[in-house]
Amino acid sequence: MELIIANKDKRKDFLEFYKKQYLNNDLKRDTLSGMLKNILNGRSVLCGSVDTEPVMVADNNEIIMISLLAHAQRMPEYLQICFFESEEFNMEAFNLILERALDKAKEKKASKLTGSLNIHVNYGLGFLASGFDKRQSFGAPYNPEFYNDYFEKSGFETINMVSYRKDMVNSPPLISKEVREKLKDIYTVREVNFKDFKKEIEIYTKINNQAFSNHLFYYTRKTEEDYELFKDLKYLIREENLIFVEKSGIPVGFMLWYPDFNELIKKGESIGFKTVVKNKLLSHRIKTFKIVEMGVIPGERNKGAILALFDYCYKCTKGRYDTMESSWILSENTKSKSFGMKWADEEFKHYKAYVKDLI
């Protein structure tokens, strides 16, 4: 058994192993291999500020485990074990990756390791920790349960997260007419303008950086990074899927929601042009939508901006979808959890992220 640093000649093997973990599973769908390919080939904006090293473990010349080790300049205290995939549980193989991660951390003067963070929270955080018999929704992680064992058996601290689900068929309005009218006197909700997309993404990035400055694993984003993130997603989403809330004409918050596009992707398919065509023709077949991200600047929290966003989302989705699924919320985030419990029907899936202090 040996650890292999995937240089230029080996990166195709690295990517093929990653894709293989998703293409032969009834519940998993491959939505990130395109982004990973761009990072491996140095074609992502991220490559200018994130140092990466793809590593593989081979046994008898067969790849059995991979990870992308990453060190972000704007989050220098962390060495990340990203895009981790393992065919079956093998602690000996994982220890080889862990040892290399420790060496890289020492080289980069990083004081912590992370597991399940994919370079930035906007690209993914968390391993699935429940609901292994349920299909993966678009933008959510899916993995075998033993992924968590690797990190828990290696002394990592566990960070718990939870998502929520709601029945939209029998859902009453979130707020009363009286509250809605009061909110209209203060806030205006509008959809993103695709014709001025770069400027709109500047607004999105600015709000993100204000809203999540103290969020675990968040570091300041650049507009060009978010533009790259949305550039391909724009082929699938509509203007209604990214909404801004404004006060006196100034954007103070946003919500990103979209249909669960994984319902259009069959086993063995990756997201791509075929998905875009299906979404144009068959979007009415999607029965679940996802609330992916919400952010409100600190000065407008607990004042109704979030309610205005939820109310607009409800108007867009009522009668079109059967179910709402949220993205993960940190279990320690009591305010977001209480709002989730108030609007949703139940907790849905649980996720785990990992961090290990090295000092």
Protein described:
The chain is of the alpha+beta class. Helix content is 32%, strand content 28%. The protein is built from 10 helices and 14 strands. It has helices at residues 11-23, 33-40, 91-108, 146-152, 177-186, 197-211, 223-233, 273-282, 305-317, 334-343, and strands spanning 2-5, 50-59, 62-72, 78-86, 112-115, 127-128, 157-167, 187-191, 242-247, 250-259, 288-296, 323-326, 329-330, 346-357. Strands 1, 2, 3, 4, 5, 6, 7, 8, 9, 10, 11, 12, 13 and 14 form a 14-stranded mixed sheet that branches. Strand 3 and strand 4 form a beta hairpin. It is globular and about 65 Å long. The protein starts with a strand and ends with a strand.
Tell me the distance between the termini: 29 Å
For the sheet with most strands, the description reads: 14 strands, mixed
**Overall SS class:** alpha+beta
As a whole number of angstroms, the C-alpha radius of gyration is 21 Å
How would you summarize the topology of this molecule?
Layout: E1 2-5, H1 11-23, H2 33-40, E2 50-59, E3 62-72, E4 78-86, H3 91-108, E5 112-115, E6 127-128, H4 146-152, E7 157-167, H5 177-186, E8 187-191, H6 197-211, H7 223-233, E9 242-247, E10 250-259, H8 273-282, E11 288-296, H9 305-317, E12 323-326, E13 329-330, H10 334-343, E14 346-357
Parallel strand pairs: 4-5, 11-12
Antiparallel strand pairs: 1-2, 2-3, 3-4, 5-14, 6-14, 7-12, 7-13, 7-14, 8-9, 9-10, 10-11
